[in-house]
Amino acid sequence: MDTENKIIVLDFGSQYTHLLARRVRDLNVYSEIMAPTALADELKKAKGIILSGGPQSVYAKDAVAFNPEIFSLEIPVLGLCYGQQLIAHELGGKVEPGETKEYGTAKLVAEESELFNRVPKEFTAWMSHGDKVKELPIGFTQIGSTNDCEYAAIMDDEKRIFGLQFHPEVTHTENGLQIISNFVFDVCNCEKNWTMQNFLGEKIESIKKEAGDKNVFLLLSGGVDSTVCLALLDKAIGSERIHALHVDTGFMRKGESAFVKTELEKLGINEVHVADAEEEFLKKLKGIYDPEEKRQIIGKLFVEIAMQEIENMNFDTETWLLGQGTIYPDTIETGGTENAKKIKTHHNRAPIIMEMIEKGNVIEPLNQLYKDEVRELGKLLGLPENLVERHPFPGPGTAIRILCSNGKEKIDEALEKKIIKVAKEDGFEAKLLPVKAVGVQGDNRTYSNAVVLEGTLDYSALENASTKITNKFTSVNRVVFLLRPRGIDSLELKEAYLTKDRIEILKEADAIAMETIKERGLLHEIWQFPVVLLPVDFNGKGQGIVLRPVYSKEAMTAKFAKLGPSVLEEMVEKIKAIKGVGAVMLDITHKPPATIEWE
């Protein structure tokens, strides 16, 4: 590989940083992520530099440290969001808080430039920012704007420095890949010479070198990531050197553990050990309602069970490595890079695992890939479609799709009145739900209330209302639409924890949702479909179920799926028949500002 033919991506903490590097690889050009403080000698090896977005303000005292030589290397530079603001701030312009925060889509009008070759004059761009460029540095011109952002795109043609306030790397920016392609090829003059097939060959050799003579103890959830990881390790070192453990936490999908074992046995993997640990997990989680505490308990116990298995087999770090199917979003969302903000805790990043990683006792061959890349790799390895194309499922499983509560959460009535007024502008009634969910706004983790809308199922109006509410009220990061019943007379937050009866309700609802989209031929169109149980009693009839189908490719961004009325009707009627369900809702929030999961 020509190491000079590459793009360096400097990570300022954006949730999209690795996605950005991946987009470059989509163009068959090698990309490498580095810290913003990377030395000039390293940066000079690239044909271009891209500055990622990030959650901080460039004028803040704790702004991300960077190497100012970036702008004097005579190498093309493209700054995105925070990266654009850094360009303006560092080179003599002015950056300040925007009057309107932009999270979601915006219509952008582009001027003629190399960056917008083969791109329409007007297109939809994905925004996620609070600050914006107020004044341009000398030598820069405006090449794009939105209604709320005058300098949505800028450039200094002589210095070959470009800045975009939007994110071309996310799938929801129209022509985004073309814009990146224009920078990579038209501006930086790169050549195409990187493929996933190349990655596979290089990774097999890398695994052989990293593993040496050691065996691998693999933590196998049975999802796409760990299954592909198993197949890749098998290809590199052989299944006889792999000990796979599947821990049945009790939070799997209906019939999941049996399916995992059966399918892997069909592939000739007979040494899959299943640990039945449902009672242990329920005991540890008794009375726990805080979502982060739940994740930490689950992660800790998961690792403890794995460690006990390791102890039983006389695991010796001199002869064994711990294997995990960790992919890049697991790392970035856990705050695992220098400037990334923590969005949630993953069990594969529990403290004891981190200690093992630091000691060099863990092997994670997929940790630079996204979900769709993992699927592509799985196909190259010959895995069947029913394993490779399965929907993503979180490590903690249904435990983080069952919201718990001590029953004491109160809503902000003054805020609710304001939301009601805004919702009416689009023809909807609104109520503030007495539960909170995780979101990601401006690359920061938020833990905020959800809003429920009542009215007519009009996706255009709902999307507009959802975006307007989450943009206007920063203490709201999620909006849902009431499907059943037709109206809400009362909402009552209940004291509710992880119990077998609540788990069964969620499993049944999840099974109905998955079976319906499978029968309707939507399994591939919908990228992921969490089903969530709320500890809220609706009209005295039972708890609320939220359907969360999304369109995505890489998990770092997502759009809520606009399911047809007949599909929704079929699901709703079956789910409403489950004992203990009082309402069914549809999550109508994009990511950002909401995350795909609620916890």
Summarize the structure.
The chain is α/β, with parallel strands linked by helices and 599 residues long. The protein has helices at 17-26, 40-43, 82-90, 176-187, 196-211, 224-237, 256-266, 278-284, 291-312, 328-333, 351-358, 371-380, 385-388, 413-424, 459-472, 500-519, 565-576; strands at 6-10, 30-34, 48-51, 77-80, 94-110, 122-135, 141-145, 153-156, 161-164, 215-219, 242-248, 272-276, 320-323, 362-363, 429-441, 444-454, 476-484, 491-493, 531-538, 543-547, 550-551, 559-560, 581-587.
Main attributes?
599 residues, alpha/beta, Rossmann fold, GMP Synthetase, Chain A, domain 3, 3 domains, 9-stranded mixed sheet, 7-stranded mixed sheet, 17 helices, 23 strands
Task: Extract low-pLDDT stretches.
Answer: none
Can you identify the CATH superfamily of the largest domain? HUPs
The CATH topology of the largest domain corresponds to: Rossmann fold
Tell me the domain tally.
3
Sheet with the most strands: spatial strand order: 2-1-3-4-9-8-7-5-6
Q: Give the second-level CATH assignment, the architecture of the largest domain.
A: 3-Layer(aba) Sandwich
- The number of helices is 17
- The helix content, as a percent range, equals 25-40%
Work out the number of β strands.
Answer: 23
User: Beta-strand percentage?
Assistant: 15-25%
Distance between the termini: 42 Å
Radius of gyration: 24 Å
* Shape estimate: globular
Tell me the name of the CATH class of the largest domain.
Answer: Alpha Beta
- What is the averaged pLDDT score? 90
The main pleated sheet reads as: 9 strands, mixed
